[in-house]
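re: ur question from yesterday

yeah so i grabbed the chain u mentioned. its 131 aa long if i counted rite. heres the sequnce exactly as i have it in my notes:
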Amino acid sequence: KGIRVESVYECRRFPQESVVIGLTLSESGADFSQEAALAVMKNVFADMSAVQIDDDVLASYKSLLERRVVTQKSFPEYWIGAINLRYIDGKDFTTGAEDKIKAVTANNIKKLLTTLGSSSRIEYVITGNKK
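ran it thru and got these structure tokens back, copy pasting raw so excuse formatting
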């Protein structure tokens, strides 16, 4: 269809722990509406949900995430932010991120991808000025 996709993600601790994924879709030489691009992205997620997730690959990514959490916790900025959140929102700074990472399964991932491909979980279409 001629779509260029750029992605960004953000792991948030406040106001609740969440991961936000942003996808920027732009035309790549084709006249393509935002609604059509959204439909294509849903199809991509639906197709991805049908792919078998290799246990070794999943274990590798989980290990990478666990190491990233450990690295973040080695910096004073992490703890300063966590302590500030505790007083702002009564949030404990021991979030159990490592246990949550360990709890991720191939079925969890497939369910998420299926939801993204079959429902309104892709929530926003924001249009910009055409160059």
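noticed a couple things. Strands lie at 3-12, 18-27. also The CA atoms of residues 72 and 78 lie 6 Å apart.
anyway ttyl
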